[in-house]
């Protein structure tokens, strides 16, 4: 019996040992499952955090790329010209530009050579498969190429050929100007004499022709100055009148219907996108008229807006602030070109209105010279050669003030 009890006790001990082992195994398994579950949760959390970091880095990279693209349009404290200069010698005018505006030179127009060398004539020469001709009332769309258009194209080719020497080895930003689609529509006439702006189909054809021709023009400029970073300025002095319904018919007795903001922005955006697709690093709009449509131009994707600083009002502060806050740049016209002689006062005084605007907007002073370039308010064809040089030099000095003493 004693032996039987020992056997039974041994069996109980074995059973207890097995039970403990099973319990320990179960506990180990539960702990392992718990560790695995926690590891899975941690791994999932790490993946989520990594995804969030990657998305944030992507957004930052996109924002930095956008800011970098906008910031690289021109150097700190840059000054530029708007369009026309006095004289008839393309090489001499270009040399003046590169001498006085080394940070942001532009391709000048020389209207004193004739109508084909002015803004509308040069822009007509750029239009693709949409001939224009000079009539007593101005430029008109016509069925075929005539003498006036051939001359305008010849003058443009001469200007570009002169760049080979005057811009040899240049590798910085270089600005070219062309009339925008709405100023062209407001100024050009249809074959029967009505304004092109009066015909929706004609305005579309002008914008499409400008986009295609501008692409070809950019290639021609790039072939002469292969190291330049091309910037396009769409001149739109008629845009406020187009949007407000103030463009008069040829008779002058009535006005044309206002164009909707959305349509205006769509056409401008299409031209800008075509220019970028052809190599332009930036596309902006210059409007030297009052009531610049900042919201429309922002919607159109303008990288910069050129204005006559003297025409800006406090009522436009919010619109300007929103545009700049979204990454837009400004070219401030600080020297009036309305009078027969330029008023070249103290350089600091010339930029006081720009600095005052910046202070009202509440942006950091050190950003001013980066975001804002300076220029004459409009073209300088009405001045003598020495006055034009003095104006450009004054602008260059004013640009430095925005960097060295912005407050």
Structure description:
This protein has two domains: 1-71; 77-404, TIM Barrel, CATH 3.20.20.210. Helices cover 53% and strands 11% of the residues. The protein has 14 helices and eight strands. It has helices spanning 2-71, 90-100, 119-126, 147-166, 181-187, 200-224, 239-244, 261-277, 294-299, 317-325, 347-350, 352-361, 368-371, 385-404, and strands at residues 132-135, 138-141, 173-179, 229-235, 282-287, 304-308, 329-335, 372-376. The strands form two sheets. Strands 3-4-5-6-7-8 form a six-stranded parallel β-sheet. The longest helix has 70 residues, at 2-71. Residues 1-7 and 56-71 have low confidence and may be disordered.
| Spatial arrangement of strands, main beta sheet | 3-4-5-6-7-8
Q: Indicate the mean pLDDT.
A: 88
Structural shape: globular
Number of helices, counting only DSSP H or I runs of 4 residues or more: 14
Biggest sheet layout:
6 strands, parallel
Quick one: CATH class of the largest domain?
A: Alpha Beta
Strand composition percent: 5-15%
Question: Within the CATH hierarchy, at the fold level, what is the topology of the largest domain?
Answer: TIM Barrel
Helix content: 40-55%
Q: What count of domains describes the coordinates?
A: 2
What is the correct CATH architecture of the largest domain?
Alpha-Beta Barrel
Helix-strand topology string = HHHEEHEHHEHHEHEHEHHHEH
Quick one: how many beta strands?
8
